Amino acid sequence: MDIADDIVNGRAALLVAALASFLTPFMGSSVNIASIGKEFLMDAVLLSWVAASYLLAAAMFLIPFGKIADTHGRKKIFLYGVLIYTLSSFLSAIFTSAITLIFFRILQGIGSAMTAGTSVAILTSVFPVGERGRVLGINVAAVYLGPGPFSGEVRQHFGWRSIFLANVPLGLIISSSFSGS
């Protein structure tokens, strides 16, 4: 592998990690503003579990999946995480009950933990020490773009289910891009 291959692989890893880093806060902030409760006659407690189940699962599994990735391979855990996240996003969009949505949100949080627990480790292993600050800064910028105006715009123009469906093409792009590198 020559230097040009290293640069291409590094850029691909950065793009994929930044996109994955965007998805977690995008989903975390999107559901808080979605009007799901009205359609399914959910009370405030049940509706709060729609957001909390995702965040709790992501927080609970972040460290364990980081450790598992160190043992079994970061790329493999990252890809499984993206696939779980993408599939659970799609299933969240087509759910038929509040309990089903909460279950898929837990799965989505687990997938999110798998990607978040590995993306920074992948970046630091791909880029040399002198470039890591810039690369990690780009990745952090993607995190802070997630809760930006995108979620509100998507929901307002296309409905609350589109918040979940918007993750599907991004997840497919991420998984196909990273599995090829």
Q: Mind explaining what this structure looks like?
A:
- The protein is mostly helical and 181 residues long.
- It has one domain (3-179): Growth Hormone, Chain: A, CATH 1.20.1250.
- 87% of the residues lie in helices and 0% in strands.
- It is built from nine helices and no strands.
- The protein has helices at 3-33, 36-40, 44-72, 74-93, 98-126, 129-145, 150-158, 161-165, 167-179.
- It starts with a helix and ends with a helix.
- Residues 1-7 have low confidence and may be disordered.
Total number of strands? 0
CATH architecture: Up-down Bundle
Radius of gyration equals: 17 Å
* CA-based shape: globular
Short description:
This protein is an all-alpha fold and 181 residues long.
List keywords for this structure.
single chain, 181 residues, mainly alpha, Growth Hormone, Chain: A, 87% helix, globular, disordered N terminus
Topology:
Layout: H1 3-33, H2 36-40, H3 44-72, H4 74-93, H5 98-126, H6 129-145, H7 150-158, H8 161-165, H9 167-179
Helix pairs in contact: 1-5, 1-6, 1-7, 1-9, 3-4, 3-5, 4-5, 4-9
